[in-house]
Amino acid sequence: MNFNWDVFWQYLLQPSGVYLTGLWLTCVISVLAMLLGCVLGLAAALLRLSRNPLLHLPVRFYVWLMRGTPLLVQIVFLYTALAAGGIFRFQDIELFGLLIPGNIQAAIIALGLNEGAYMAEIIRAGIGAVDKGQYEAGRSLGMTFAKLMRRIVLPQAFRVIVPPLGNEFNVMLKNTTLVSVIGVQELLLSTQMVTSATFRVFELYLVVAIYFLLLTTLWGFFQRWLEKRFGQSDRPSSPPPATSRMFGRSTLKLLRGR
Amino acid sequence: MAHQSDELIIEALNIHKSFGDLQILKGISLQVRRGEVVVLIGASGSGKTTFIRCINLLEEIQSGQIRVSGHPMGYRTKADGSLVRDSERNIARQRRDIGMVFQRFNLFPHMTALENIIEAPIQVLGVPRKAAVEQAQALLKRVGLADKAGHYPSMLSGGQQQRVAIARALAMKPQAMLFDEPTSALDPETVGEVLQVMKELAEEGMTMVVVTHEMGFAREVADRVVVLDQGELIEQGPPEQIFSHPTHPRTQAFLSRVL
Ligand SMILES: Nc1ncnc2c1ncn2[C@@H]1O[C@H](COP(=O)(O)OP(=O)(O)OP(=O)(O)O)[C@@H](O)[C@H]1O
Ligand SMILES: [Mg+2]
Question: Which regions span the lipid bilayer (chain A) (predicted)?
Fold first, then answer.
């Protein structure tokens, strides 16, 4: 077997600057895209509650579109195809003294848009899990729809949303590898660059796999804490803890099979 | 009761309500004066729940009018005479005047008893937190739960939850209170404590419309008993008259089943 342990240990334990930048980008893109996804998902879920077709039909279209096309295609479409078609070209912008390249903006927006569709469904299910009596109690106390949502329904829906939300972030961390196709130097592309210089393909891809495993495992622990903190509820059927899902022992339906 | 005046608090005029093709309320009219306690009785499915939900605009009505303290609730009459639902904001505002107590309590499970009570005064009426908390503590004392302020609903018995729910509704200082079978989801041993709170409320002069199967409560506390049957108001009068000398044959049939 052609395996160089020195290279493996060196890159695993003393990653070069390229690697660290990649790791940093992976985390930043994941977090920002997830935030965007949550905001879009919440807006979409609320609009879908509306009886007005002008409000809920566009949302259904959006969810249909995002779930019906590959994320990789969406990323390339947003960044490369729109620019090629002369429709929209992402420009580098400077924000708080920091230069943000166009492809990173596109990466965050594409991942966020895609995430929004999944979050919309998750939040909608969470809202649907809140007892109808809660709406009536809130209404009879004179609450408007906005107050009712903010103070009564969403806090209760949140407990149902937290476990799948954690899973979504796990998926998001891994999906950031897809934005390597538009030249964002996250972990995968960084690895590719290093391998093309060192030719240690096996070792370096093993390292990148371990990095992702570390990221998702760390997140798994955080998720477990999050569920303890927010997922606790007086509902009799609380979801199984994060660890059992992390190792895939249960709830296949909570994951979205990627 | 002693506190009654001639001022009309709730006026329901010729209320019609259907679910799809099914007509549930076939022109019910009811007037409730300040301080009056009206008990609604009737067979299951006669429309009691639907009727009091209409008063609070939790159900849309097809025709008729509801007025609270003389103000029409929830609907505007268009030029052609048809009814259109008022804006959400206006409806929310009008609902403040009517407290509602549900069969299944519907306390907010993510809030303590105290938080349940201060929520609407702070969020809806804009009462300062300190004042709202003081009022909530007084209300909890009034319903006999001063020591349960920090308890979540899941830690309270059914009877205690329902008393918190009553306090929560009272915190809005409503003109009238609606009760939909407030004791029928309770264990028998906790029914009494809830009825006691309601009785005290009635004695203090609260205007109340109560749907209940507790005929003892109706006899003792009601100023007027109203009998619904298949979406129609078939008979009403003081409790002793309804219970001892019902005139309508369907009232007689209903009472002979439940008494
Ligand atoms: N949302 C709804 N959709 C369709 N039909 C309904 C709905 N709510 C109530 N009904 C029907 O309206 C009728 C009256 O119901 P309602 O709940 O008002 O009766 P009730 O007098 O309160 O009965 P109970 O004593 O069992 O509570 C029933 O036939 C019921 O099936
Ligand atoms: Mg009923």
Answer: 20-47, 68-88, 204-222
Q: What is the pTM of this model?
A: 0.86
- Look up residue B128 and give its amino acid: P
Contact indicator for B169, A141 with CB cutoff of 8 Å: yes
- What is the nearest CA distance from A153 to chain B, expressed in angstroms? 9
- Residue B90 and residue A111: Cα distance in Å, rounded? 41
**Residue A139 to residue B119, Cβ atoms within 8 A:** no
Distance between Cα A168 and ligand 2 center (Å): 42
Could you tell me where the beta strands, DSSP code E, fall in A32-82? none
Residue identifier of the C-alpha nearest atom 30 of ligand 1: B45
Distance B103 CA to ligand 2 centre (A): 8
Q: Which ligand is nearest to the CA of B23?
A: 1
Residue A140 and residue B56: Cβ atoms within 8 Å? yes
Give the position, in ligand 1's atom list, of the atom nearest the Cα of B59: 1
Distance from CA of A31 to the nearest CA of B (A): 28
Number of other CB atoms surrounding residue B254 within 10 Å:
21
Q: Are B74 and B94 in contact (CB under 8 A)?
A: yes
The size of chain B, in residues, is 259
pLDDT (tens digit per residue) in B87-124 = 888 889 999 999 999 999 999 999 999 999 999 999 99
B161: tokens are 């939850």
The C-alpha atoms of residue A124 and residue A149 are separated, in whole angstroms, by 12
What is the b/e burial string over A193-217, where b = at least 16 CB atoms within 10 angstroms of the residue's CB?
bbbeeeebeebbebbbeebbeebbe
Q: Would the CB of B56 count as within 6 Å of ligand 1?
A: no
Q: A130 — phi, psi (to 5°)?
A: -80, 135
Ligand 1 close to Cβ of residue B42 (< 6 A) = yes
* Number of neighbouring beta carbons within 10 Å of residue A250: 12
Joined together, the tokens standing for residue B163 give 């008393």
Confirm or reject: Cβ of B231 under 6 Å from ligand 1: no
Half-sphere exposure of B61 (CA within 13 A, CB side): 30
The Cα A196–Cα A179 span in angstroms is 19
Give the CA count within 13 Å in the CB-facing half-sphere of A171.
21
Shortest Cα–Cα distance, A127 to chain B (Å): 14
Question: In chain B, which ranges are E strands?
Answer: 8-19, 22-33, 37-42, 63-68, 71-72, 75-77, 83-85, 98-101, 176-180, 207-211, 224-229, 232-237
Interface ipTM:
0.92
Q: DSSP secondary-structure letter at B61?
A: -
Instruction: Tell me the two tokens of residue A5.
Output: 């342990």
The gap between the terminal CA atoms of chain A, to the nearest Å, is 31
